[in-house]
Amino acid sequence: MATKLRRGYFFKQIFQLLLALACAAAATALFNTLRNDVESIVAHQIELLSRSVSSMAALNLENALKEDNQEQLTSLINVINSEYYIFDATIYNAIGEVVVSSDLNLPLEDMLAIEGAAQTPITGLGRSQYVAEIREDNGDNMGFLRITVETQLLESEATALIDRDQQLLYLIVGLAVIVGFLLTRTLSLKRRWGSISRQEAKQTQSGQASQFVNALASRSKNTDTNEEAP
């Protein structure tokens, strides 16, 4: 009987260990899935941000480009380029000639794999180009606005936040495991002490019963002895 109980307890412990490992593996997989989903959302949001910035800036450039106001165009370009995630900005006319560019402007050949280049130049790595048309009120094309967005910088900032949140989730899960272990340990000790107390109570009752029986037997023996005496 004791062997069966020990064997059952052993299999129970093995099952609990396997269940805990399976839960840990599932939690890790969920964390990785969540991270991939968040990174995809971040990339999509960066894309929307870049296109929105280029489109809104192009709308503000219409009058200045129509009047060929170099001072106003330069001021607007500097405002656009003041954003920390904008590397450079350039305004082109309708035939592709540069009208105004920011101070840190680099040629397009240094940013993209064009003119037979086998790979993207080093200066273009981690950066993305976005172009928006500058149109007149009647819809005619007046020129283009090109901005270079530091996509790797934005992704790095988002990744840092994701890593921080993921570490917090790991910490929360770890604390939950510790709390669960302590509660289980406390309840197990409570049951053990309760079992010991019940055994001691049974032993005490058994001892008292034995003492009572012995006392009765002794009294009966004394009574028989007294009756046999002349």
From TrEMBL:
Coiled-coil positions: none
InterPro entries: Uncharacterised_Smp
UniProt signal peptide: 1-29
Pfam families per UniProt: SMP_2
Main location: membrane
Keywords, alphabetical: Cell membrane, Membrane, Signal, Transmembrane, Transmembrane helix
Domain of life: Bacteria
Gene Ontology, cellular component aspect: plasma membrane
Biased composition (Polar residues): 200-220
Location in the cell: Cell membrane
Region (Disordered) residue spans: 200-230
Segments passing through the bilayer: 168-188
Family according to the record: Belongs to the Smp family.
Protein name in UniProt: Smp protein
